[in-house]
Amino acid sequence: MASVLIVNDQSLQRVGLRMLLAAEPDLTVVGDTASGSEAVALSAALRPDVVLLGGVGPGTDDLGTIRRIAHPAAPAHPAPVSGSVGPAGRPPRILVLASTGHEGHAYAALRAGAGGFLLQDATPRELTAAVRVVAAGDAVITPGLTRALIETVRHERPRRPGGRAPARAAFTERERDVLVAVASGWSNAEIATRLSIAPTTVKSHVSHILAKIGARARVQAVAFAYEYGLVRPAA
């Protein structure tokens, strides 16, 4: 059973999301709020598996909220670290639900510590599936949004001179193939088909890659690939 805290400044959306998630037998809503600061306090008190954060957009303090929930040891967090981690000794995972047109802000949200980013036009099935994936510790970014974020990465993360990755990110040949495919915007299913490997194997490779570069989200692997010259921006 995965527990969810809903954060959204629209009361009708909070009600709708609560009804949608509560109808799933393996999901439970432990609380909801319209306030970012209250979300930080509730995440510390309720210890949900997932914080579903809505209303992301330029001009809001959602990035600060994400940082304070995802990194409870940060100085800006008002509560002790021991009271803010989830049942497995980790902070809650954060799934951001936002409108289209905020790809640059999405990248910032993922860098701040979000575990996934889903657009508000997602179907109920896509949303509940995303909550489960994030609760399990995996990252969620739709393929279409990944491709849009790649364009942001290309502009924000110039290639480093020499293109040599840190020693801790010593990839196997297959991991390098998978990383390049991820940075090219391919979904796990597409990677599995093109590399003739099982989808579960792709998922395992992606997990290993993220661990090696110290990343939590797929888009951070994309940034890494461009930064170190593993993938070159299209002309």
Q: What does this entry look like structurally?
A:
This protein has helices spanning 11-22, 36-46, 62-70, 103-112, 124-135, 143-156, 173-183, 188-195, 199-213, 218-227; strands at 2-7, 27-33, 50-56, 93-98, 116-119, 140-141. The protein has 235 residues and is of the alpha/beta class. It folds into two domains: 2-141, 3-Layer(aba) Sandwich (Rossmann fold), CATH 3.40.50; 160-227, Winged helix-like DNA-binding domain superfamily/Winged helix DNA-binding domain (Arc Repressor Mutant, subunit A). It has a six-stranded parallel beta sheet with strand order 2-1-3-4-5-6, with helices on both faces. Strand 3, helix 3 and strand 4 form a beta-alpha-beta unit. Helix 6 (143-156) runs parallel beside helix 10, helix 7 crosses helix 9 (199-213) and helix 7 packs across helix 10 (218-227). The chain is globular, with a radius of gyration of 18 Å. The model is unreliable at 74-85 (pLDDT under 50).
At the fourth level of CATH, the homologous superfamily of the largest domain is Response regulator
Unreliable segments of 5+ consecutive residues = 74-85
Query: How much helicity do the residues have?
Result: 40-55%
Shape: globular
CATH class call of the largest domain: Alpha Beta
Would you tell me which CATH topology of the largest domain applies?
A: Rossmann fold
What is the overall number of helices? 10
Query: What order do the helices and strands follow?
Result: EHEHEHEHEHEHHHHH
Strand content: 5-15%
Structural class: alpha/beta
Main sheet overview: 6 strands, parallel
Number of domains: 2
Arithmetic mean of pLDDT: 79
How many β strands by DSSP? 6
Do you know the CATH architecture of the largest domain? 3-Layer(aba) Sandwich
Taking all Cα atoms into account, the compactness measure Rg is: 18 Å
Distance between the termini: 47 Å
Describe the strand arrangement of the main beta sheet, using strand numbers. 2-1-3-4-5-6
